[in-house]
Predict the structure of Signal recognition particle protein.
Amino acid sequence: MAFEGLTERLQKAMTNLRRKGKVSESDLRDTMREIRLALLEADVNFTVVKDFVKTVRERALGAKVLEGLNPAQQIVKIVNEELTKTMGETAVPLNKSAKIPTVIMMAGLQGAGKTTTVGKLALKLKNEQDARPLMIAADVYRPAAIQQLQQVGQQIEVPVFEMGTDVDPVEIVRQGMAQAEANHNDYVFIDTAGRLQIDEQLMTELANIKDLVHPDEILLVIDAMTGQNAVNTAEGFDQKLDVTGVVLTKLDGDTRGGAALSIRAVTGKPIKFVGQGEKMTDLDVFHPDRMADRILG
Ligand code: GDP
């Protein structure tokens, strides 16, 4: 379950505060210290934690909540609002092109969940908008990657364009796009290669694909379980590719929650979807307010 530790610690901090009735400035300081430690333990980015704690404290003092009724309740409300803000305030929908096809390029490290997420998203669009997507297999480095996308395609009944592993990925994408246009597909997903770490050659290849198709959406797929590494990876990809959004996968296995709470604030890029399981239906729109409620328990 996501955020286990954080939820427990925040609830404890809030319970301690509620017990007080009247809250002094030093009580507030203690609470903020507990919140700070809880966030750091959840692997939230240090600067994000610092800014968060400062804002909550300033808001609490500025609104004179300590002198009003139910100070603890007011502080919980401020914490909830600031958590929501840190994660981006509102859900951000997928970009959509004025004329078909809308092109969605996926990027991310190997194993982050790109191929799975392509399938999940294609299925979502099919189910919700009656979309007719095409998925392009542009990872030529692992033969298994193409097979995996084909299996996903069969499972969700969405066609896959592939040219094996001997063709340059940019050429595969060029021909895949031609097929999508001929077949009037309304969405094209480009499943790209990943590496264990960010490397120059891969980034150049991704940049070349980007220059060719000018995607409407470049979704960075990030494994939530990798915590602050996920945030560093997001920054690295974003610097090279200027991504338009993030999909945070494996939130179902992420007990800490640091990536979810840091990525938006560090990169400025919205988390658009979260993966919460291995099934094709385990993908949800990311709602910062609902996530904040969940974190506070
Ligand atoms: P890629 O190398 O980036 O294309 O990653 P894959 O799509 O092959 O995913 C790697 C592994 O992560 C697979 O075993 C997926 O089933 C698993 N996976 C992907 N997304 C999620 C998720 O949201 N939750 C869980 N639990 N597993 C996921």
About this structure: The beta strands are 102-107, 133-138, 160-161, 187-192, 217-223, 245-249, 271-275, 283-285.
